[in-house]
Amino acid sequence: MNPKKIVFTTIEGTTGFSCNPKYIALELLRRRQDLDLVWLVDDMSKEFPAGIRKVKNTLKNRAYELSTAAVWVDNSRKQLECRKRLGQFYLQTWHASIAIKPIGLERGGSFSKIARMVTEHDSRMIDLFVINSAWGEEHAALGMLYHGKMIRTGSARVDALINDRDNIRCKFREKYGLAKDTKIAMYAPTFRSPECEKISVN
User: Fold this and answer.
1) Domain count, the chain
2) Which residues, listed in sequence order, are joined to residue 7 by a DSSP beta bridge?
3) CATH of the domain at 119
4) Other CB atoms closer than 10 Å to residue 178's CB: what's the count?
């Protein structure tokens, strides 16, 4: 096991450099240059900053990288085949930062048997769960089937928007060629089916 190796995954490797793990990785890059920061990703064409070693998210690669790392950082669930070694540390940052959609047991009949197995397996491995509010803490036990240690410190991706709001707004408007006084509404549906992907919001 490499004590300086940290493996990151977002949404089981599907989304690339994103969400809470992204901002944790950026802070580690800012503070330390001696770490082996590994990112498991399905699509190797996804862009990552220098200092992060992206690895194709295959069963073999996942098994090797996770089993040789001292720390895991994730925002979703680990697969059923995943096993944590003695001495490894698993930080769960979860992607749903404001806990407004039902998860786990809150989903009722749509929470399948396999989903429950994966949820329980993953929750048993977590060492520390990053939560951003009392609301999140209340929903963790039922939604995540998690009863371990939590730390209420915020949500890395949301904190970036709040703590550097003016700079983020300016960069966003510049990127999309918008006037400084343009009002922006965010549309972010979830649990959408494939036939709903082509929604026009114009």
Assistant:
1) 1
2) 38, 72
3) 3.40.50.11820
4) 13
Query: Which residue from 25, 144, 161, 141 is spatially nearest to 95, judged by alpha carbons?
Result: 144
Range of the domain at 24: 2-157
Residues 108, 43 contacting (CB under 8 angstroms): no
pTM of the predicted protein model: 0.82
The edge-to-edge listing of strands for the beta sheet with 89-92 is 52-56, 36-41, 2-9, 69-74, 89-92, 128-131, 150-152
Q: What is the pLDDT along the chain (202 residues), one digit of tens a residue?
A: 999 999 999 988 898 899 899 999 999 999 999 999 999 999 999 999 999 999 999 999 999 999 999 999 999 999 989 999 999 999 999 887 666 677 888 888 888 999 999 999 999 999 999 988 887 787 777 788 888 998 888 777 777 767 777 888 888 899 999 998 898 887 766 655 555 555 565 5
Closest CA to 13 of 50, 47, 56: 56
Quick check: is 167 in a domain? no
Q: Are 143 and 103 in contact (CB under 8 A)?
A: yes
Residue 83: Cβ within 10 Å count: 12
CA torsion sign for 53, 58, 60, 66 is: positive
Instruction: Dig out the tokens for 26 from the structure.
Output: 């950026």
